[in-house]
Amino acid sequence: YYTDKEYSSAAELFKRYLIKYPENQLILLYLGISLLATGKYKNASPVFKKILKIKNSLLTEEVKWYLALTYLKEFKIEESLTLLKKIGKESIYFRKASNLRKKITLLK
Hints:
The protein is mainly α. It has helices at residues 7-20, 25-37, 41-52, 60-73, 77-86, 94-107. Helix 1 (7-20) packs antiparallel against helix 2 (25-37) and helix 3 packs antiparallel against helix 4.
């Protein structure tokens, strides 16, 4: 479902999987992205935040990017900017984050 962009169906499957494996970071990430894609921003934020609380997560930079996008959708501009600034130069999201920060700053 996820690869076919059927995010509502994907989210339901991810939720079921998480009942048995609640700490699976990759499934949490895909659930958060699916919720974001379906406009369920208030549900997506806690999922991303749960991953950020996990020490030494390999998904931290990616999660910062998606949480920043979620904050934008929720009109939490300052929170989004703060996260975008925290995306490291080594991240594949660094350039996107820098460009988005510039656009947001221009629109403020």
